[in-house]
Amino acid sequence: MAEFESNGQGMADLESNEQETMEDEGPDAEWDVDDSFYPFSITAKIPKGYTEPPRARLEDVVRNYVLHFLPAKSLYRFRTVSKGWNEWISYPFFAHRQTTYFKDISGLFCQVPGLNPSFISFNQDAYGMPDPSLMFLPEPVNIRSSCNGLLCCQSVGDNVYYICNPVTEEWKVLPKPNLYHGTEAAIVLVFEPQALNFKESYELVCAVTFPDHPVIYFEIYSSRSSSWRLCDTICCELDSLDLHNGGYYMKGVVYWQSSSGGILAFDLKNEQYGLLPLPLSVGQYGSLTVMHGELCYIMPRRQDDGCSIYIHGNMDMSLKSVINLTCDDVGSIFGVCRALPSINDDILILANGRKVIAYHVREHKVELIFTSAGDACTRYLPYVNSLVSVRHPLVGKRA
């Protein structure tokens, strides 16, 4: 570069020679250039017939790469942006895509015995539904299980199950099972949306016990066949007979806690069961959940000056950590303190009497989420604000 700057005549001669060469060969001629001869870089030649592609509009980028990561309530608001957005968000493929990508816990379905369900939103602006009391269903129900946007309910005083999406108000009544489940059956809804499976499929797994039969039967409903079937596997472990009616699903396995202090695990693929230990002195107020990709058991214990949270993990459910919360953190304790399934690896949820609080582990911060005006709820189910469709026969939808 210094050579060309010191010799202005040399640069002029070079430019003159290049201009003569281009005039001789014509504007359409192809000619080679020695890139190393130039004091600057020539990146590439522009091919004949090249036209610059149109730049993507911000609206198209948001529509194609952002919208499916948003919760259902926000998407319903965005349908008013334009006619094109309304058509795109209403498209069944988009609903499937949003169901696959959006899996954040949006809030808790809860219910006081004898009353209609209600919904505790973790963000009122982003998460919600038109009728959290589920009055769009044909009869009063009790909430039983939830998974990735689907909710399982059972009719009051009967053996009828409903699968619904409270956001879209689509629902399906299931055929009656072969066995009598009762109102406190240990059932778990299993739904894992997958990108390449456009027909949403789910299963309802029930561990059925009878007073005069010291065994556990496993009956499974499959949306693929729209029918129930009784598994050949029968659990004869006496310590597992008294199961809590709530269960937990993780990575192909359903888990139930038993009153005897153990965990009954049922592998859906192989339809085999196993037993996992629980720590001594566990009560009925603990909760199975997943933290950092592994199954954990959270057990709160009330103390005089607050509450201690014991977190157990690994296959032997050994003690991993203890979190001590004082009354300054959780406030006055009314009744019992129960653990609920955690939102994510950093947030633990506790039902403290009529209060629901969230404890942020990294920030050591306690947040009050909800305070009940009446009796404390007896059942809380984590829920994902999803557009998942219930697209099967015998489907209803509110007009």
UniProtKB/TrEMBL annotation:
Annotated stretches, region: Disordered: 1-33
InterPro entries: At3g26010-like (IPR055290), F-box-assoc_dom_typ1 (IPR006527), F-box-assoc_interact_dom (IPR017451), F-box-like_dom_sf (IPR036047), F-box_dom (IPR001810)
Biased composition (Acidic residues): 15-33
Span of domain F-box associated beta-propeller type: 146-389
UniProt domain F-box: residue ranges: 60-92
Pfam families the UniProt entry points to: F-box, FBA_1
NCBIfam families in the record: F_box_assoc_1 (TIGR01640)
Protein name: F-box protein At5g49610-like
Organism whose genome encodes this protein: Durio zibethinus (Durian)
Species lineage: Eukaryota, Viridiplantae, Streptophyta, Embryophyta, Tracheophyta
Gene symbol of the encoding locus: LOC111300777
